[in-house]
Amino acid sequence: MRQNPAETLRRVLPKVREVLPVAGVEMQLTAAVSFLTILQEDSVSIHTYAHSFLQVILLHLEHRDAGVSNAWLETLLSVIEVLPKETLRHEILNPLVSKAQLSQTVQSRLVSCKILGKLTNKFDAHTIKREILPLVKSLCQDVEYEVRSCMCRQLENIAQGIGTELTKSMVLPELIELSRDEGSSVRLAAFETLVNLLDVFDTDDRSQTILPLVKSFCEKSFKADESILISLSFHLGKLCHGLYGIFTPDQHLRFLEFYKKLCTLGLQQENGHNENQIPPQVLEQEKKYISVRKNCAYNFPAMIVFVDPKNFHMELYSTFFCLCHDPEVPVRYTIAICFYEVSKLLNSGVYLIHKELITLLQDESLEVLDALIDHLPEILELMSTGGESSIQENKLSSLPDLIPALTAAEQRAAASLKWRTHEKLLQKYACLPHIISSDQIYYRFLQRMFTIMMTNNVLPVQKAASRTLCIFLRYNRKQEQRHEVIQKLIEQLGQGKSYWNRLRFLDTCEFIIEIFSKSFFCKYFFLPAIELTHDPVANVRMKLCYLLPKVKSTLKIPADKHLLQQLEMCVRKLLCQEKDKDVLAIVKRTVLELDRMEMSMDAFQKKFYEKDLLDQEKEREELLLMEMEQLEKEKQQNDGRPMSDKTFEKKRRDAKTPTTLPKSIPISVPGPSGTSTPSTSKEIKKSKLIRSQSFNNQAFHAKYGNLDKCPSKSSTAGYTPVSGLGKTSVISLTDDSFRARNASSIPTSFSPSPSLPSTSRGTGNPVDPKSSGSKDTQPRKATLKSRKSNP
Fold first, then answer.
1. Looking at the DSSP assignment, which residues form a beta bridge with residue 600?
2. Number of domain units in the chain
């Protein structure tokens, strides 16, 4: 049909028609799928398809094998979607009148029910009322409960096709009658259809007709089959939402108590029985009770809305506690999935469920942990920042309980074979700089990331640990700790004895290019990275070759001309001295790509403008983090007492108006001279400290949200999210007090230690006309240009 539809229809299809009546199950199923594929691929026009294939489909709808019959029915229902009305009327609707009669087989009547449900969306209300609804009513009163149940489940589709008025007058009476049917499956179908149609009915219908039915259904559910109880527990949230506002206080309390009873259903019977001694029917009943409690966990957010979040502690907390401590994994798994929704609904009361978060983090089942960590960053943010000032201290004091739970969860995931859960958890740990202090991360998490990178055998887990470590480093506030981490990365990974560690160092370099500013990479990691061109292992050299375009994209001309020369020298040596043919082939391709790359300049270029602004933003944040550390030291010296992390965290979280970083930053804006009175200088330092404190809270919002969105594809200039400040670029700030600060107050937080390589861009041109002059008399404009190693 794809290659030659006309000849296929003329010569092949007749043979298929001949053989299908006597074909086996396999061939019937294949034919049904093939006919459906031909329809979906539009191999022929709809008119041709109806003429050639429709009769074959209709002929086999009542095949004796249920699987074959369902396959042909699925194909027909898809065909009904696209057939014109006239064809539907003559070929399908008219024959249904006879097919739906009691004289026909049960299978024929069941097929008729499903076709009627599909046809209602294709005809107008008048045609449906005159030709379809009489058939629907007849099938709703069929002698077989299977037919009544099947037709009942199609009433939702029919109601959507005929509108509200006809639904109230024609469909609702049938639903009421079916809800009292002797067959439990029919009553269940009627109940579920009523719940799905709640939005169609007005307030009077809900209060006078549907609510009494629902109450009767709930009262009888414990005495009836447990399958009805399972359906009721699943739809209870939707039911309470649809009937909200028409409950009396007494009815409201009744439904709430009914829900609480379902949440603990079956738990009272578990008294340490030996499973081998329990009869099979009792075990089957317990499985149904587990399904009921699982459905209750699924509906828990809806029940919070039902009782109002303000009443959560009094009305639902004990139930939430029971669901989080349920003995069955499926129940705890479901409540873990809902935990984020519950946290959002509670808002300022989220601190109430902190203990349950710890419980689920420490759950023995990794499935529960995996479900919880999908939204772990958002949950932790709500835990740490949500709420009113009156209860702020309570929430902050509970955070230390969180750290042991997080570390234990990671160790439990690491000890299991479920490495994907471990990888996901490490990725989610990237949110921690916004939740806990820099020192807590350094002492409790950062070394663990190093250990995973060095010892874990699963590559995705190692990469996740590497990226998270880079984010920890990005928001670390202490120069000594930053330098220690950088030194470990270079010595233990970049210069490690294992080639596997050196490969992970290159992965880390890639993450640093993505997360940090270009200047940071050039200053600390550029030379250690290109040194690996001399690595004795071919795989390391090969991986470096793939990374070289991104490495080159961090350079700016002319400030980094000396680094560009070293890069070119390393590539030239690879071309001349490489003996491994695979590496040499990649080197040659890389050289061509490097030659095609356009270099970034110190000054902003139009084609890189957006990336340059983003890189400038990164660089500003790095500078502000350094200044924060310097100002904290000054404050400690002035006050004569150290500022603890706990105190700083409190001040950071209490900052209500964080400084907004401007989106567009001029390249050069002259500021006032640095000669200011002592009192003014004191006010400037105070202003800068407040801004720096608020920055740690504000900057992470902007950056963490963008980190995971950064694309991994290289552009023509090699991938890097942004371009950095050039040697002659100047950071200008909107705050006048910030502009007024002179060069003497700039910290040397990123000045390289003797053990770290430094490739500061200032070394490219030793004589810079903009950097000449006294530090005391130069304005701000002359002090923050080009990240010098020793400002």
1. 556
2. 1
The whole-angstrom separation of Cα 381 and Cα 193 is 40
pLDDT, tens digit (0-9, with 9 covering 90-100), for 691-710: 444 444 444 444 444 444 44
More confident residue, 599 or 190: 190
What confidence tens digit (pLDDT) does each residue in 521-533 have? 999 999 999 999 9
Q: How confident is the prediction for the chain on average, in pLDDT? A: 79
Instruction: Answer whether 184's CB lies under 8 Å from 149's CB.
Output: no
Q: How many CA atoms lie within 13 A of 777 on its CB side?
A: 3
Looking at the DSSP assignment, which residues form a beta bridge with residue 510?
none
Is the CB of residue 611 less than 8 Å from the CB of residue 706? no
Chain center to CA of 159? 36
Which of the residue ranges 346-350, 485-489, 757-761, 770-774 would you say has the lowest mean pLDDT? 770-774
Q: What count of other Cβ atoms lies within 10 Å of the Cβ of residue 501?
A: 17
pLDDT band at 557; cut points 50, 70, 90:
confident
Identify the burial level of 526 via C-beta atoms within 10 angstroms of its C-beta, where 0-12 means exposed, 13-18 middle and 19 or more buried. Answer: buried
User: Residue 579 has what DSSP assignment?
Assistant: -
The whole-angstrom separation of Cα 383 and Cα 486 is 32
Residue reference for tokens 């200008």: 732
Name the DSSP class of 352. G
Give CA 100 to chain center in angstroms: 48
- 601 bridge partner residues: 557
Give the span between the Cα atoms of 714 and 723, in whole angstroms: 14
Q: Which residue has the tokens 């330092």?
A: 685
Domain-embedded: residue 411: no
SS (H, E, C) 275-342: HHHCCHHHHHHHHHHHHHHHHHHHCHHHHHHHHCHHHHHHHCHHHHHHHHCCCCHHHHHHHHHHHHHH
Q: Is the preceding omega at residue 249 within 30 degrees of 0, hence cis?
A: no
pTM over 0.85? The answer is no
Query: Tokens 């480093």 identify what position?
Result: 473
Does 480 map to a domain? no
Beta bridge partners of 556: 600
Distance CA 573, CA 521 (A): 23
Residue with tokens 């009421």: 176
Torsion of CA 112, 114, 119, 125, to 10 degrees: 90
Cα dihedral: 706, 709, 710, 716 (round 10): -130
Q: What is the CA radius of gyration of the chain?
A: 35
Comparing 534-538, 696-700, 781-785, the range with the smallest average pLDDT is 781-785
**Measured distance CA(384)–CA(350) in Å, rounded:** 9
Among 380-384, 540-544, 673-677, name the one with the lowest average pLDDT.
673-677
Q: How far apart are CA 273 and CA 327, in angstroms?
A: 14
d(CA 228, CA 248): 25
The answer to whether 689 and 655 are in contact (CB under 8 A) is no
Helix, strand, coil abundance in the chain, percent, nearest 5: 70, 0, 25
Kindly report, residue by residue over 393-430, the tens digit of the pLDDT.
434 455 668 999 999 999 999 999 899 999 999 999 99
Residue 734 included in any domain: no
> Which residue type occupies 612?
D
What type of residue is 680?
A: T
Q: Is residue 127 part of a domain?
A: no
Full residue range of the structural domain in which residue 583 is found: 526-597
Distance between CA atoms of 697 and 508, rounded to whole angstroms? 25
Task: Kindly state the DSSP code that residue 554 receives in the 8-state scheme.
Answer: T
- Residue 215, CA distances (Å) to 257, 294, 360, 566, 783 in order: 13, 22, 35, 81, 76
Exposed/middle/buried for residue 639 (C-beta within 10 Å: 0-12, 13-18, 19+): exposed
Q: Note the pLDDT of residue 269.
A: 62
For 396, counting Cβ atoms within 10 Å of its Cβ (0-12 exposed, 13-18 middle, 19+ buried), the class is middle
